[in-house]
Backbone:
């Protein structure tokens, strides 16, 4: 469940309410963040409790060894939902990657526990994490940085930052390097809820942009010089708003 960085807790309320509704009656929610995170974890925890969570616990990762702590692992083992919070994806991914906590999150998610990522935590959910890059509408060679993510899905690359024109170049550059994936661009206060059937539903006040390179034609990715524009032909793009659904397996919007 990737969620675009919220502009306000009030704007995120519909997203949090949906997360709680699929997590059971008065669910136990675990927030996972890096020690240096700038996100308001206490305020988010209070908002979740006000919306119906039974209990909210925060796990703050300050070192990779925290991902091996038995108390942290037990907390996630007994959780009904997990929310990853970050302003910079590498800050959290370098603390989580390869730890017992990361493996536990993948297992619990495969068993049906919802795992959400908010702000830069959204990018972390994918196997190929979009860790940073240049703003602007044109994809450029070297204009995007990819790193290993948590790996809950290998079907998508997620960019949750900025307006469409600011992030489109980054997303296209990432797809030029990974043309088997779908690109998801999330507006603020907008989330993509991906169910066990790999059908995505949009929740929130903004839009979700999906870029599909499945039928890509010519691309000069192998020959482009550093910072040169990347040519990509025959892309498909969809813009989905609240309530719209999309089948990730068959790559098509649903009525």
Residues:
């Amino acid at each position: 469940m990737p969620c675009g960085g919220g502009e306000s807790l009030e704007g995120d309320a519909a997203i949090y309410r949906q997360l709680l509704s699929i997590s059971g009656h008065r669910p136990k929610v675990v927030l996972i963040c890096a020690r240096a995170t700038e996100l308001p974890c206490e305020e988010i925890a209070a908002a979740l409790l006000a919306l119906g969570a039974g209990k909210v616990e925060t796990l703050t990762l300050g070192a990779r060894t925290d991902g091996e702590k038995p108390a942290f692992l037990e907390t996630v083992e007994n959780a009904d939902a997990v929310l990853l919070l970050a302003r910079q994806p590498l800050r959290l991914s370098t603390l989580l990657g390869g730890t017992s906590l990361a493996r536990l999150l993948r297992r619990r998610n495969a068993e049906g526990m919802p795992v959400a990522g908010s702000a830069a935590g959204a990018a972390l959910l994918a196997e190929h994490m979009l860790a940073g890059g240049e703003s602007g509408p044109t994809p450029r060679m070297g204009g995007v940085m990819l790193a290993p993510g948590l790996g809950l899905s290998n079907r998508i690359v997620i960019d949750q930052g900025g307006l469409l024109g600011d992030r489109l170049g980054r997303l296209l550059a990432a797809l030029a390097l990974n043309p088997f994936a779908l690109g998801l661009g999330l507006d603020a206060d907008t989330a993509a809820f991906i169910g066990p059937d790999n059908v995505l539903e949009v929740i929130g006040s903004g839009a979700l942009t999906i870029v599909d390179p499945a039928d890509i034609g010519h691309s000069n990715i192998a020959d482009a010089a550093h910072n040169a524009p990347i040519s990509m032909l025959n892309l498909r793009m969809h813009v989905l708003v609240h309530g719209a659904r999309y089948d990730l397996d068959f790559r098509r919007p649903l009525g």
The mean pLDDT is 90.
